Amino acid sequence: MLVIAALLLGALIGGLRARKRGGNRMDIAQYATVYAIAFGLIALFASIIISR
């Protein structure tokens, strides 16, 4: 559950950051994807640490 929430939050933050910088649709999609992956990985490791 934590990972899914982090993916969505990362995509939202990445999309907003790209839009703020004046990016087109492809830039927004790329930023959203990269931020979602980064936030998801961080949440995955955090959930592994929490579960141990």
UniProtKB/TrEMBL annotation:
Keywords: Membrane, Transmembrane, Transmembrane helix. The chain crosses the membrane at residues 28-50. This is PEP-CTERM protein-sorting domain-containing protein. It comes from Aliiroseovarius sediminilitoris.
